[in-house]
Structures are given as structure tokens and as C-alpha cells.
């Protein structure tokens, strides 16, 4: 459903992505791992349209996504959970979720269903629906950022380092939630992570991105069995 071919992105002449090609088929769980500065967030920003592509193509279900204005891309079924969560801190939990539902412009009945759906996945958000998002813990804010994305019923969910800044226990909880979301909602998931063990153990296929280039790609088994991945990313 998502196909990126030879995508390059530059920042003021510096190449952040160099001829990157990746694809995600319907319902797949794709992991992209790589160190700081590899270009992981840039890749997602190019899909969402907050940075421009210098060259290359991005297509969604065969249509040219780069020709779709960035504000319209959520209407095509793409939801981006950005690095650092970026919840609306001065809005309540429920209002954050409502912001995520805007691509659907839900009527009251649909809105109730949406809330029930995300509350079933993240019960803590139901308990805290009137709390200001800025006062949630880091893990709760991450759940809210994912819930906000799900409220728009996306077909493609882009998750940028959801474990960032969380304790190992809470990060594991978030990875479990993401697995549940993938299973119950059946959507296509692309997860970018520095925590390679968790990301690769969740995925169907994965890519290793280093200095703006895809240096390795393969099935979960290929990547977990790769000597270099084991040494550099899995510490084995
Ligand atoms: N707005 C910007 N202006 C200039 N350079 C940028 C900008 N955003 C990112 N870069 C550079 O592009 C490269 C890739 O950055 P990016 O944020 O995509 O990496 P990343 O893989 O997400 O890293 P991290 O794991 O630290 O989040 C880095 O060298 C970064 O300094
Ligand atoms: Mg990043």
C-alpha cells in the first residue's frame, strides 16, 4: 500500500535521505531501525509532507502522495505519531483524541464509537479523560498520542520512536499496546525505533537505515539472524 522509491531529502544542501526505497504491504508491520541522525524522522516527515522530497516518489495505493497537499494526507488514511508525542498539553485527554478524529468529521454516534474503541485499547485514557494532557506521565502521553492517531481510523500508522524517554517497563507496555493495535485494528504499521530488539521482534519485515541510506532489509528472521545487526543493534 505504501511504496517509496529512491526518495532523497536535503536540508539546506545536506543530504538527510539518500535514495531510500521502502515498501509496506497492506496489514504489514514494518520496523525501521537506525542510530541517531540516520534520517528516520525525516522519512516520516516526507510521508506526512512536513519536509519536501528533493527527488524520488512516494505512493499510497498507487496514487502519487507527493501530489497531495500535506494537510490533505490524513484524509488519505495516514496517521503520524511524531517523535516526542506532541500532545496538545493544554487540552484535555478527550479533546486531544477529538483532534485526531477531525479527518473523519465524526457525527455524535461515530464519536462515541471512536471513544469506546480507543478506551478499550487504552483504559487509562478513559479514567483520565478530563485531565490536561500536559499533566499525564510520559507513558500515558505516548498512549494518548497513539489514541489520537487511531481516532482518525487511519489505514497506515507511522510511529516515531514511541519508546523514547520511557522506562524499560513502560516501553514494553507501549510495544505490547502497539502489537494489540496492529492485531485488533489490522492496519499497516511502520515503526521507527532505536530500540532494535523490541522493534524487530514486533515486525514482519524491517529495514536498517544509517546515514540516510538503507543498508539492510529483510524479514524479521533475516534481520534478527544477521551478524552485523546482532552485533551493532542487538549487542550480542
Ligand atoms: N530541520 C532540519 N534542518 C537541518 N537539518 C536537519 C533538520 N532536521 C533534521 N536534520 C538533520 O537530518 C539528519 C536526519 O535527522 P532525523 O531527525 O531524520 O534523524 P533520526 O534518525 O530521526 O534521529 P533520532 O534517532 O535522533 O531521532 C540529521 O543529521 C539532522 O541533523
Ligand atoms: Mg528521529
Which labels suit this protein?
6-stranded mixed β-sheet; single chain; 236 residues; binds adenosine-5'-triphosphate; 9 helices; alpha/beta; binds magnesium ion; Rossmann fold; 4-stranded antiparallel β-sheet
Verbal overview:
The chain contains nine helices and ten strands. With 236 residues, the protein is an alpha/beta fold. A hairpin with a 2-residue loop joins strand 1 and strand 2 (14-24). Adenosine-5'-triphosphate binds next to helix 1.
Tell me the layout of helices and strands.
Blueprint: E1 2-11, E2 14-24, E3 29-33, H1 40-48, E4 55-60, E5 63-64, E6 78-81, H2 93-100, H3 108-121, H4 123-127, H5 138-151, E7 156-160, H6 168-185, E8 188-193, H7 196-202, E9 205-210, E10 213-219, H8 220-225, H9 227-233
Parallel strand pairs: 3-8, 3-9, 6-7, 7-8
Antiparallel strand pairs: 1-2, 1-4, 4-5, 9-10
The structure holds adenosine-5'-triphosphate and magnesium ion (MG).
Magnesium ion (MG) binds next to helix 1.
